[in-house]
Amino acid sequence: MNIDKPSQSPRSHLFTVRVWQEEIDRDQTKWRGKVQLLTSGDVRYFRHWAALVPLLVTMLSELESRPEATQETSSESNTRMGRPMKKSRKKR
Predict the structure, then answer these.
(1) φ/ψ bin of 41: left (φ > 0), alpha (ψ from -120 to 50), beta (otherwise)
(2) Alpha helices, DSSP H only, in 1-92?
C-alpha cells in the first residue's frame, strides 16, 4: 500500500438523521425521519424506524456504485456544509 496516494473511497461517511412526530389525528402521532449524506447533500425520508437501517445500506451501496461521488476532497465537503476549511499557520 502506498501511503502517498489518497484512498479511492473514504472509510466513513457522515450522515445526519432528523426525526419528528407528525400529527395524524387529534390524538394520534407518527414518527417521521430524514437522512442526509452531508458530503453530497443526498436526502431520503422514512416513515418507520425499521426502514432506517435498510435506507442507510441502500445509500451506502449507491455511493459504492458512483466512484466519482466518493472522490470529494475534505475542503469541498467542508465548504458544502457551510464551514469553509481554515488554513493553519505554521509558527516560526
Answers:
(1) left
(2) 52-65, 74-80
Separation of alpha carbons 57 and 16, rounded Å: 14
End-to-end Cα spacing for the chain: 34
CA gap 26, 89 in Å, rounded:
58
The domain spans of the chain are 13-61
Question: Residue 28 carries which side chain, given as an amino acid letter?
Answer: Q
Q: What is the pLDDT of residues 8-36, one digit of tens each?
A: 666 889 999 999 999 989 899 999 999 99
90 vs 30, 75, 78, 87, CA distance in Å?
Answer: 53, 19, 21, 10
- Amino acid in the structure at residue 76: E
- Give the tens place of pLDDT for each residue, 54-81: 999 999 999 888 765 444 444 444 434 4
Spell out where the chain has E strands: 15-25, 28-37, 43-46
